[in-house]
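User: I'm writing a tutorial on reading structure tokens. Could you give me a worked example: one chain, its sequence, then its tokens, then a sentence or two explaining what the tokens reveal?
Assistant: Sure. Here is the example chain.
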Amino acid sequence: MTLANLAPPLTPVKEVAQSLRNHGFAILSADDVAGVAKVPLSDLLLLTPFWEDLPRDPYLKDGGRYRFRRHASYEIKANSLQMVPHRAHWQSLDYNALHGGIERWFEPAQIELTNNLVWQSLLKGMAHLLSSLKPVTTWFVETHQFRIDTTDGIGRPTPEGAHRDGVDFVAVFLLNRVDIKGGETRIFEFGGSAGLRFTLSQPWSLLLMNDERMIHESTPIQPIGPYGYRDTLVLTFRSNGFQDSPNRSQQ
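And here are its predicted structure tokens:
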């Protein structure tokens, strides 16, 4: 069996809640993601160019230059979406042994993106879907725009290795794969031995995980030709407030 481009087992949208309950994850096609967001897929695809304007991640402890990102945070109550003042992304060492314990002040998401009604509809649609599984008063949501490229010959989507994020749910959208090999997604049961591997390749397809139950990672990417990259959007949903440093600073 080849390790390259293993097709993901897609979850019918009507079975997403059951799959999350029974298995801890679900994988949605791009068309079903558009249905959750209540927008045409063609409108979601129009968001992809915002990934052409991501600054380099200055916090990589392995000295790499391969990761670019932006960050924004929201509170979602019912159908109300509220962007909060820009804040640091922080994780404890329990969840991120490589970059945990430090405040990482990434550049904010572009105003043109955060004001975009399709973007807002996507966030609200995902919150509505998850609220049907776990009713909460407020979802505390962080958005991460990522580009991993092959500037140095190899790019690492998850330099921290297999991990959890310390939230309730994690949504990983594949936006683009350009002239690369690798980037295989691997998910495992936390504390168990069962696992699954596959390669997301359809723009705006989605891996949705219960972060309390699943560990995840993506394998490094290498170029096919002079240069390649992989674009993703990661949304995290937490029901009991944002993760913040005990010594939280303001910027």
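What the tokens reveal: The chain has five helices and twelve strands. The radius of gyration is 17 Å.
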